[in-house]
Input
Amino acid sequence: MSMKFSPKKYFATVLTAFLLCLIRPLSGLGAIVNVSVANNSFAPATANINAGDKVIWTWAPNSFSHNVVSESTPSAWVFPNNNALQSTPFAFTNTFNSAGSFPYECTLHVSSGMVGTINVAAAANQPPIITITNPTSGTVFIAPANVTVQASASDSDGTVTNVQFRIGSTVLTNKAAAPFSAVTNNLPTGSYTLSAIASDNLGAKTTNSVNIIVDAPPSVTITNPASGAVFTAPANVTVQASASDSDGTVTNVQFLIGSTVLTNKVTAPFSAVTNNLPAGNYTLSAIASDNLGAKTTNSMSIIVDAPPSITITNPASGTVLSAPANVTIKASASDTDGTVTNVQFLVGSIVLTNTAAVPFSAVTNNLAAGNYTLSAIASDNNGVKSTNAVAISVVTPLPLAINAPQLSSASFQFSFAANIGLSYVVQWSTNLTSPNWIPIFTSTAASNPVVFVDNHATNSPGFYRVGRLPNP
Output
């Protein structure tokens, strides 16, 4: 068989072959195998490749005309339509995507043994990919813990047929379709490994695991003040708490009033102070944290109350009364942030009465001579109390007697014995047969005796008398 040689084609073919030899498979792509088509042979005659690989047959310079023909199934191929390979582009390429053995030949020289075989192995199965998306490794839960495990899974060359969830070696569930999740409830304290195992359609498996901690929370109790305690404004309050942790240590106790942080304490005794609280309702909280970050809160409410106001309006402090004295005590009371629920009246430590209605008053009778403290105690709707007190004196009245009078020109003067603090009246009348006593002098005794002077006396006869006014 004659063969024509073309330097130009030879150079192009050699260049093509040289470039093909430099080809390397890219990541994720099939490999490239080069087969030289020379006189009466393919080199190599047998090539072992993987599914997805590419084979390039290249005409060798100075060779006869050749072709590459295969009647193999499932993909028969022929180049170049039974024409000679000795023409542009001097090469033939075929990609093998199916596993199998594929014989081929040069039909022009098959009698000379110009045959070859491509053996295609099935591509290696890629395992599935799985990631636990929730919870993250190291997450701390509070016992008893309810945990939802979630995972994402995929397979690059097939399908995910199952995802199995485990806690330790215990199977929680198997899921054949997304979304992949499982739930485990009431976990006690301890450390746990959560696993998700993905299986693909060819049985390959991949496991992803995370570790979690289930922590017993610390305990904390406010020991002072008691819930519902009432303080009088402005209030200084000391908050005290006890805290412990059964499976670790208490690392901090934070005290708050409302949302305002008072202090943080890392060691016992755990306490905080808040001063000058105005009237109002307040929530006191203590938040204990343990070594794993678990927190527990204890809260209670207190009341800071503006006390009621009370004033004894009768008798006035310092009042002097004559024995035996009957005294009516009167008081006014009010409350700015609530209501007055009771007013208690006392003489000394003896309770006279309790009254809840206006007017607030009490009566004490037949007080003997002596000094007395009269008190009124107002209570409001929160039990806060205020006290007002006055001091009075009860005296035994001195006998009424007019000392030797003195008369000079137009004045008349005399004195009489008196109890300091009692009130007296001097009266005058023109006769004693049908007296018409006229008050001409009234006074509360500031000294004993009391001196009376009538500067309007005339030579007309008249009579004077002294009387003690009744207790107010």
In short: The first strand starts at residue 32 and ends at 38. Confidence is low (pLDDT under 50) at residues 1-28. The chain is about 5% helix and 55% strand. The CA atoms of residues 432 and 463 lie 7 Å apart.
